[in-house]
Design a protein that fits this description.
Blueprint lengths: L8 E3 L2 E3 L3 H11 L4 H10 L2 H13 L12 H19 L3
Antiparallel strand pairs: 1-2
């Protein structure tokens, strides 16, 4: 695993890290065309899209991103940590 960076959040699945690639993947999957639209899509997403979001954040830190064996309840429980990762990464330095 790579060294800690501002915005990284440790979870039971690994480190979540927002990268430009992860942000692009999340925007593509949700169909968001602006940061405001992306925030709205994240608030309304279902379990499948949440899996994609978490996979993208895990991939950003070179973590495992196969979440097929993770239950919907576990995914839902990780969403506050994903939100924290995204919020912390977007705060100006």
């Amino acid at each position: 695993m790579s060294a800690y960076r501002r915005g990284d959040v440790e979870t039971s699945l690994g480190t979540l890290r927002l990268t430009v690639g992860a942000l692009a993947e999340i925007a593509e999957v949700t169909g968001a065309e602006s940061p405001r639209a992306l925030a709205e899509q994240i608030r309304l997403m279902g379990p499948d899209t949440a899996r994609t979001l978490l996979s993208a954040l895990l991939r950003g830190s070179d973590g495992a991103c196969d979440l097929s064996g993770v239950s919907d309840a576990q995914i839902a429980a990780l969403m506050p940590q994903a939100a924290s990762c995204i919020s912390a990464a977007l705060v100006p330095a």
